[in-house]
Design goal:
Number of strands: 26
Distance between the termini: 47 Å
Largest sheet: 7 strands, antiparallel
Number of helices: 4
Shape: globular
Strand content: 35-45%
Strand order of the largest sheet: 2-1-12-3-8-9-10
Structural class: mainly beta
Oligomer: single chain
Length: about 375
């Protein structure tokens, strides 16, 4: 079990037995609901995603005041300059932690993850810029944990919460969720190997994949994760034949296409450009990729962050930057089990990342 609750602008879902049951093809009402416990979860995570507000004063992103009589309260605030402050109270106990993220001057969306482990008596607040390796982490001792009943209240009871208009989703898990670089290709995405196209989910360490130079490079790891299908995790269907796709593929909005050609060089003065899949949603090249509450993605870790050929279009592989130099981030990431000494370092790409207008313009011209 993992994800138990999800709220976004379209839905409010809770199942103490796990939201994965809702992906099995049955309506929630057709399944017996698991009992909702009032005991604090031994482990768990609260994940929210929000747009950055231009306000020059603190802004409340999420407030929870339990109506069950437990005395639980939560306040999550954004402060100018990329800071986030979390305050949790239960009875006479209060936990307070603040994080400030260096966004490099730009941060359209932030993902905030609060996790706790009561047995280890430790908690963690992480703020990250999705689609990049920018992550700031702070730990705290004696964390305040949430109960399943309070998670249910947060997503189901309007009277128990205050939500900023900038917030895109709220999700609860009964596990400590990883942070850092995330996979972004659906499991059935075809990737070119030495033996032809294979589903990305079937590739393993030691297999080889094709890069834009025609070389075959080894797969160091295949990273897989199931996430809430909301915000910058929401599946996007990239439509063929846009950008040379031979078939539709489903990705997360942060997956970037690597597009080259004479038109690209003429328009942007670069051999190739990078196009985030999310930039294509307001045109004809992409549509929403599904309606289930959870999505499962894979991504390949390669030696030098090479692009891979997927359905006849090149897309980026996983970018881990210099994460191996940050032991705290590595230990909290999906690569925590990967030997640190063997983890590659990826240089920043030299290709420009297109803005949404330019991406849509290029898509229209390439389809003409």
């Amino acid at each position: 079990m993992s994800w138990i609750a999800l709220w976004d602008r379209k839905q409010a879902l809770f199942d103490g037995g796990g939201l994965a049951r809702l992906c099995a093809g049955s309506a929630a009402g057709e399944q017996p609901l698991s009992p909702v416990s009032n005991d604090p979860m031994t482990q768990g995570s609260l994940v929210v995603e929000t747009r950055v507000s231009p306000y020059d004063r603190p802004q409340t992103l999420l407030g929870i005041a339990s109506q069950t009589g437990s005395g639980f309260r939560l306040s999550l605030q954004a402060v100018p300059g990329g800071g986030v402050v979390l305050v949790l109270t239960r009875g006479g106990r209060t936990a307070h932690v603040a994080v400030n993220l260096d966004t490099g001057g730009r941060a359209d969306v932030l993902r905030i993850t609060y996790s706790w482990d009561l047995q280890a008596n430790v908690g963690r607040l992480a703020v990250e810029q999705p689609g990049t390796w920018r992550v700031a982490v702070r730990t705290l001792t004696k964390p305040v944990a949430l109960t399943m009943a309070e998670a249910q209240e947060c997503v189901k009871d309007d009277a128990a919460r205050v939500i900023s208009g900038d917030l895109s989703f709220i999700a609860f898990s009964d596990r400590i969720e990883p942070i850092g670089p995330m996979p972004s290709l659906s499991e059935d995405t075809p990737v070119m190997t030495a033996d032809g196209y294979q589903k990305v989910s079937e590739l393993q360490r030691g297999d080889v994949v094709q890069t834009p130079t025609g070389d075959l490079v080894p797969v160091l790891a295949n990273i897989r994760r199931t996430v809430p299908a909301a915000g910058l995790f929401a599946p996007i269907r990239l439509r063929a034949p846009f950008f040379g796709l031979s078939r539709d593929i489903i990705t997360s909005p942060t997956q970037r296409l690597v597009i080259g050609g004479s038109r690209v060089e003429y328009m942007f003065g670069s051999e190739c450009v990078l196009i985030p899949a999310g930039h294509l949603l307001h045109g004809n090249a992409a549509t929403s990729g599904g309606t289930t509450p959870l999505a499962t993605y894979c991504q390949l870790l390669l030696p030098n962050h090479e692009a891979i050929l997927a359905a006849d279009t090149y897309v980026e592989s996983m970018d881990v930057g210099r994460m191996r130099r940050r032991r705290d981030l590595l230990n909290a990431s999906l690569l925590s089990g990967y030997p640190r000494r063997l983890l590659p370092e990826h240089a920043r790409t030299a290709f420009p990342v297109l803005r949404e207008f330019d991406a849509l313009t290029l898509a229209a011209q390439r389809a003409a």
